[in-house]
């Protein structure tokens, strides 16, 4: 039986994060729906790389990074913690290297 890595929704739920959009530098408000970009590493597990405000959130992993497992998702931001996490798009390692 293959071992599955922890689902990104579970790993990112409850993550502590800053309050500034990485694209427009706007401050995030309590209760705001934010977007995020995260990648998976063998050693560190799921790591949050980018935080976006409601206006800047993306909906697809574009372009996908070859050999990387990465996700675009949305969550509710409250007191520097991500809640109600959902994954919108995911690019698995094998999808980035198609011929
Ligand atoms: Zn923004």
Give a short overview.
With 99 residues, this protein is mainly beta.
End-to-end gap:
28 Å
Number of domains: 1
Q: Order of strands across the biggest sheet? A: 2-1-3-4
Indicate the mean pLDDT. 90
> With helices defined by DSSP (H or I, 4 residues minimum), what is the helix count?
1
Q: Detail the poorly predicted runs.
A: none
Order of helices and strands: HEEEE
Report the major sheet. Answer: 4 strands, antiparallel
Architecture overview:
With 99 residues, the chain is mainly beta. It has one domain (8-97). It is 5% helix and 39% strand. It contains one helix and four strands. The longest helix has 5 residues, at 8-12. 24% of the residues are buried. The structure holds zinc ion. Zinc ion (ZN) is lined by residues 21, 23-24, 26, 52-53, 55-56. Zinc ion binds next to loops.
Task: List its traits.
99 residues; mainly beta; four-stranded antiparallel β-sheet; 1 helix; binds zinc ion
List the topology elements.
Layout: H1 8-12, E1 32-41, E2 45-52, E3 69-78, E4 81-91
Antiparallel strand pairs: 1-2, 1-3, 3-4
Bound molecules: zinc ion (ZN).
């Amino acid at each position: 039986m293959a071992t599955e890595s922890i689902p990104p929704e579970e790993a990112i739920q409850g993550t502590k994060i800053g309050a500034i959009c990485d694209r427009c530098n706007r401050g995030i408000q309590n209760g705001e729906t934010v977007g995020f970009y995260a990648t998976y590493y063998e050693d560190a597990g799921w790591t949050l790389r980018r935080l976006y405000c409601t206006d800047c959130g993306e909906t697809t992993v574009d372009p996908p990074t070859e050999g990387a497992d990465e996700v675009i998702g949305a969550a509710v931001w409250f007191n520097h913690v991500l809640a109600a996490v959902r994954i919108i798009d995911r690019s698995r390692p094998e999808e980035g290297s198609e011929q």
